[in-house]
Amino acid sequence: MANVSVYNMEGKEVGTIELSDAVFGAKINEHLVHMAVVQQLANKRQGTQKAKTRSEVSGGGRKPWRQKGTGHARQGSTRSPQWTGGGVVFAPVPRDYSFKLNKKEKRAALKSALTSKVQGSSLIVLDELKLDTVKTKNFVNVMNNLKVQKGLVVIAENDENIVMSARNLPDIDTTLASTINVYDIMKAKTVVLTKDAVAKIEEVYA
Question: Where is this region: Disordered (predicted)?
Protein backbone atom coordinates (compact mmCIF):
# COMPACT_ATOMS: atom_id res chain seq x y z
CA MET A 1 0.00 0.00 0.00
CA ALA A 2 1.16 3.52 -0.82
CA ASN A 3 1.77 5.83 2.11
CA VAL A 4 0.76 9.42 1.41
CA SER A 5 1.17 12.44 3.66
CA VAL A 6 -1.96 14.06 5.09
CA TYR A 7 -2.08 17.86 5.28
CA ASN A 8 -4.32 20.31 7.07
CA MET A 9 -5.82 23.47 5.59
CA GLU A 10 -2.72 25.44 6.61
CA GLY A 11 -0.58 23.21 4.40
CA LYS A 12 1.18 21.50 7.32
CA GLU A 13 1.74 17.75 7.39
CA VAL A 14 -0.32 16.19 10.18
CA GLY A 15 0.14 12.49 9.48
CA THR A 16 0.08 9.80 6.80
CA ILE A 17 -2.56 7.59 5.23
CA GLU A 18 -2.32 4.19 3.57
CA LEU A 19 -4.05 4.11 0.19
CA SER A 20 -5.59 0.90 -1.06
CA ASP A 21 -3.59 -0.76 -3.83
CA ALA A 22 -6.86 -1.96 -5.35
CA VAL A 23 -7.70 1.65 -6.26
CA PHE A 24 -4.56 3.79 -5.95
CA GLY A 25 -2.00 1.12 -6.87
CA ALA A 26 -3.64 -0.50 -9.87
CA LYS A 27 -1.92 -1.39 -13.13
CA ILE A 28 -2.06 1.66 -15.41
CA ASN A 29 -3.86 1.02 -18.70
CA GLU A 30 -3.25 4.09 -20.88
CA HIS A 31 -5.56 2.83 -23.63
CA LEU A 32 -8.55 2.61 -21.28
CA VAL A 33 -7.78 6.06 -19.85
CA HIS A 34 -7.73 7.46 -23.38
CA MET A 35 -11.00 5.72 -24.27
CA ALA A 36 -12.69 7.01 -21.11
CA VAL A 37 -11.65 10.60 -21.90
CA VAL A 38 -12.77 10.30 -25.53
CA GLN A 39 -16.10 8.83 -24.44
CA GLN A 40 -16.80 11.60 -21.97
CA LEU A 41 -16.00 14.32 -24.50
CA ALA A 42 -18.01 12.56 -27.21
CA ASN A 43 -21.02 12.17 -24.92
CA LYS A 44 -20.93 15.91 -24.21
CA ARG A 45 -21.26 16.81 -27.89
CA GLN A 46 -24.65 18.17 -28.89
CA GLY A 47 -24.48 16.69 -32.37
CA THR A 48 -26.75 19.42 -33.79
CA GLN A 49 -24.36 20.66 -36.51
CA LYS A 50 -26.11 20.93 -39.87
CA ALA A 51 -25.35 22.18 -43.38
CA LYS A 52 -27.35 21.77 -46.59
CA THR A 53 -26.36 19.42 -49.39
CA ARG A 54 -27.02 20.19 -53.06
CA SER A 55 -30.39 18.47 -52.78
CA GLU A 56 -31.48 20.86 -49.99
CA VAL A 57 -30.36 24.33 -51.13
CA SER A 58 -32.80 26.47 -53.12
CA GLY A 59 -32.49 27.31 -56.81
CA GLY A 60 -30.85 25.44 -59.62
CA GLY A 61 -34.01 24.29 -61.34
CA ARG A 62 -32.67 24.89 -64.82
CA LYS A 63 -29.35 24.55 -66.57
CA PRO A 64 -27.61 27.98 -66.23
CA TRP A 65 -26.44 28.08 -69.88
CA ARG A 66 -26.39 25.76 -72.86
CA GLN A 67 -23.95 22.86 -72.91
CA LYS A 68 -21.68 24.07 -75.74
CA GLY A 69 -20.60 27.23 -77.48
CA THR A 70 -20.50 29.73 -74.60
CA GLY A 71 -16.81 29.46 -73.70
CA HIS A 72 -17.77 28.54 -70.14
CA ALA A 73 -17.31 25.16 -68.56
CA ARG A 74 -20.43 23.03 -68.74
CA GLN A 75 -22.79 23.43 -65.78
CA GLY A 76 -25.95 21.56 -64.91
CA SER A 77 -27.16 23.39 -61.81
CA THR A 78 -26.39 26.39 -59.63
CA ARG A 79 -26.84 24.12 -56.62
CA SER A 80 -23.52 22.38 -57.35
CA PRO A 81 -20.87 22.74 -54.61
CA GLN A 82 -18.55 24.92 -56.72
CA TRP A 83 -21.21 27.65 -57.01
CA THR A 84 -21.62 30.41 -54.43
CA GLY A 85 -24.76 29.48 -52.56
CA GLY A 86 -24.48 25.89 -53.70
CA GLY A 87 -24.69 22.82 -51.49
CA VAL A 88 -21.93 21.48 -49.24
CA VAL A 89 -20.17 18.25 -50.18
CA PHE A 90 -20.71 15.58 -47.49
CA ALA A 91 -22.50 18.14 -45.33
CA PRO A 92 -22.68 17.43 -41.56
CA VAL A 93 -26.07 16.34 -40.30
CA PRO A 94 -27.43 15.99 -36.73
CA ARG A 95 -26.08 12.80 -35.15
CA ASP A 96 -25.35 11.14 -31.85
CA TYR A 97 -21.62 10.95 -31.11
CA SER A 98 -21.94 9.03 -27.84
CA PHE A 99 -20.67 5.48 -27.43
CA LYS A 100 -20.68 2.93 -24.63
CA LEU A 101 -17.82 1.87 -22.41
CA ASN A 102 -18.24 -1.24 -20.29
CA LYS A 103 -18.56 -0.84 -16.52
CA LYS A 104 -15.36 -2.80 -15.86
CA GLU A 105 -13.48 -0.68 -18.38
CA LYS A 106 -14.72 2.54 -16.73
CA ARG A 107 -13.62 1.33 -13.30
CA ALA A 108 -10.21 0.23 -14.60
CA ALA A 109 -9.72 3.59 -16.32
CA LEU A 110 -10.59 5.50 -13.14
CA LYS A 111 -8.19 3.39 -11.08
CA SER A 112 -5.47 3.94 -13.68
CA ALA A 113 -6.01 7.71 -13.56
CA LEU A 114 -5.86 7.83 -9.75
CA THR A 115 -2.78 5.57 -9.68
CA SER A 116 -1.00 7.80 -12.20
CA LYS A 117 -1.59 10.81 -9.92
CA VAL A 118 -0.18 8.91 -6.91
CA GLN A 119 2.89 7.79 -8.86
CA GLY A 120 3.41 11.29 -10.19
CA SER A 121 3.17 12.81 -6.69
CA SER A 122 0.21 14.84 -7.89
CA LEU A 123 -2.26 13.66 -5.26
CA ILE A 124 -2.75 15.49 -1.97
CA VAL A 125 -4.83 14.22 0.96
CA LEU A 126 -6.45 16.73 3.33
CA ASP A 127 -7.52 15.76 6.84
CA GLU A 128 -10.63 17.93 6.35
CA LEU A 129 -11.88 20.82 4.26
CA LYS A 130 -14.41 23.10 5.93
CA LEU A 131 -15.36 26.72 5.33
CA ASP A 132 -17.67 28.64 7.65
CA THR A 133 -18.99 30.90 4.88
CA VAL A 134 -18.98 31.21 1.12
CA LYS A 135 -15.73 33.12 0.63
CA THR A 136 -13.55 32.62 -2.44
CA LYS A 137 -10.60 34.34 -0.73
CA ASN A 138 -10.58 31.75 2.07
CA PHE A 139 -10.68 28.89 -0.44
CA VAL A 140 -7.83 30.45 -2.44
CA ASN A 141 -5.77 30.70 0.77
CA VAL A 142 -6.22 26.94 1.34
CA MET A 143 -5.11 26.18 -2.25
CA ASN A 144 -2.12 28.49 -1.86
CA ASN A 145 -1.15 26.76 1.38
CA LEU A 146 -1.20 23.45 -0.48
CA LYS A 147 0.61 25.01 -3.49
CA VAL A 148 -2.19 23.96 -5.83
CA GLN A 149 -2.62 26.09 -8.95
CA LYS A 150 -4.56 23.94 -11.40
CA GLY A 151 -6.41 21.26 -9.50
CA LEU A 152 -9.42 19.11 -8.79
CA VAL A 153 -10.84 19.12 -5.25
CA VAL A 154 -12.78 15.98 -4.34
CA ILE A 155 -15.07 16.02 -1.31
CA ALA A 156 -17.15 13.20 0.18
CA GLU A 157 -20.46 15.05 0.64
CA ASN A 158 -21.92 18.12 -1.04
CA ASP A 159 -20.79 21.25 0.83
CA GLU A 160 -22.28 24.42 -0.60
CA ASN A 161 -19.68 26.65 1.09
CA ILE A 162 -16.84 24.85 -0.67
CA VAL A 163 -18.54 24.49 -4.05
CA MET A 164 -19.70 28.11 -4.17
CA SER A 165 -16.34 29.44 -2.94
CA ALA A 166 -14.49 27.63 -5.74
CA ARG A 167 -17.01 28.33 -8.49
CA ASN A 168 -15.36 31.51 -9.78
CA LEU A 169 -11.85 30.04 -9.94
CA PRO A 170 -11.00 29.13 -13.55
CA ASP A 171 -8.28 26.61 -12.72
CA ILE A 172 -9.94 24.83 -9.78
CA ASP A 173 -12.81 22.35 -10.10
CA THR A 174 -14.75 20.62 -7.33
CA THR A 175 -16.52 17.29 -7.49
CA LEU A 176 -17.98 14.62 -5.23
CA ALA A 177 -16.30 11.29 -4.60
CA SER A 178 -19.41 9.61 -6.04
CA THR A 179 -19.19 11.54 -9.35
CA ILE A 180 -15.43 11.57 -9.87
CA ASN A 181 -14.42 10.88 -13.48
CA VAL A 182 -11.32 10.19 -15.56
CA TYR A 183 -11.43 13.37 -17.66
CA ASP A 184 -11.46 15.71 -14.63
CA ILE A 185 -8.64 13.75 -12.98
CA MET A 186 -6.39 13.81 -16.04
CA LYS A 187 -7.14 17.48 -16.77
CA ALA A 188 -6.07 18.54 -13.28
CA LYS A 189 -2.42 19.11 -12.50
CA THR A 190 -3.06 18.18 -8.84
CA VAL A 191 -5.88 16.15 -7.28
CA VAL A 192 -6.84 17.12 -3.72
CA LEU A 193 -8.83 14.52 -1.77
CA THR A 194 -10.24 14.79 1.72
CA LYS A 195 -9.78 11.74 3.95
CA ASP A 196 -13.53 11.13 3.82
CA ALA A 197 -13.42 11.23 0.01
CA VAL A 198 -10.56 8.68 -0.02
CA ALA A 199 -12.61 6.34 2.19
CA LYS A 200 -15.67 6.71 -0.03
CA ILE A 201 -13.73 6.06 -3.26
CA GLU A 202 -12.08 2.99 -1.75
CA GLU A 203 -15.44 1.75 -0.54
CA VAL A 204 -16.98 2.02 -4.02
CA TYR A 205 -14.09 0.96 -6.26
CA ALA A 206 -11.95 -1.38 -4.15
Answer: 43-86
